[in-house]
Amino acid sequence: YDPNSLAVIANSEVGIILMHMQGIPETMQIDPKYSNGVVIDTYDYLSSRITACLELGVTRDRICVDPGIGFGKTLLHNMELISNLGIFHGLGCALGIGLSRKSFIPAIVGEVPPEERLGGSLASMLNAIDQGANLLRVHDVKETVQAVSVWKKINTPKVDR
Fold first, then answer.
1. Could you tell me which of 144, 121, 125 has the C-alpha nearest to residue 133?
2. Helices 38-55 and 75-83: crossing angle, nearest 10°?
3. Coil, helix or strand for 53?
4. DSSP 115-142
5. CA atoms within 13 A on the CB side of 84
6. CA-CA distance, 90 to 39, in Å (whole number)?
7. d(C-alpha 92, C-alpha 112), whole Å
8. The predicted structure's pLDDT at residue 3
9. Cβ(51)–Cβ(6) under 8 Å?
10. What's the first-to-final CA gap in the chain, in angstroms?
11. What is the Cα–Cα distance from 39 to 1, expressed in whole angstroms?
12. Positions marked active-site
């Protein structure tokens, strides 16, 4: 929310993650709606933020976009975004996502506390990787690294001898 944040990034050599959020944290979950659909509206918002960064001299290789799962979105909004993550590659930046322990998991499987959402977190993260996600924000690092390592081995083309 700091109006100077982009200038700080532009005057440094660090990267930036641009995340979509509808509204502010205090009100974002009060009946969120999207005029052109959650995927298109999120894409357009991120595109506009990328343009603002580029205009200040921040290059695309320093930008990562995150559709903001759970930030001003219903369960259906989240599912639509997760199912269509690949579209965000059209923005020409790295794709990051936070799916770990999110509230959409108990909305699907039944009430479970955050510390018991590992299975849902891993399933959704592997789906994100399958769609080309470059960066994952996670709580359970060791378990996620193991799941991603197995996923990569299974999905690596094999040479037939």
1. 125
2. 70
3. helix
4. GG-HHHHHHHHHHHHHTT--EEE-S-HH
5. 16
6. 12
7. 37
8. 86
9. no
10. 57
11. 23
12. 102, 137
The residue type at 28 = M
CA distances from 97 to 11, 31, 160 (A): 26, 23, 35
Predicted confidence pLDDT, tens digits, the chain (161 residues):
788 999 999 999 999 999 999 999 999 999 999 999 999 999 999 999 999 999 999 999 999 999 999 999 999 999 999 999 999 999 999 999 999 999 999 999 999 999 999 999 999 999 999 999 999 999 999 999 999 999 999 998 877 76
Distances from the Cα of 74 to the Cαs of 78, 114, 147, in angstroms? 6, 18, 27
Q: Judge whether 71 and 19 are in contact, CB under 8 Å.
A: yes
Instruction: Tell me how crowded residue 123 is: count the other CB atoms within 10 A of its CB.
Output: 15
Angle CA 94–95–101, to nearest 5: 145
**Identity at 34, one-letter amino acid code:** Y
Please report, for residues 88, 125, 130, 145, the alpha-carbon distance to residue 149 in angstroms, rounded to integers and kept in the order given: 24, 12, 13, 6
Q: CB under 8 Å to 25, separation ≥6 — which residues? A: none
- The residues near 145 (Cβ < 8 Å, ≥ 6 apart) are none
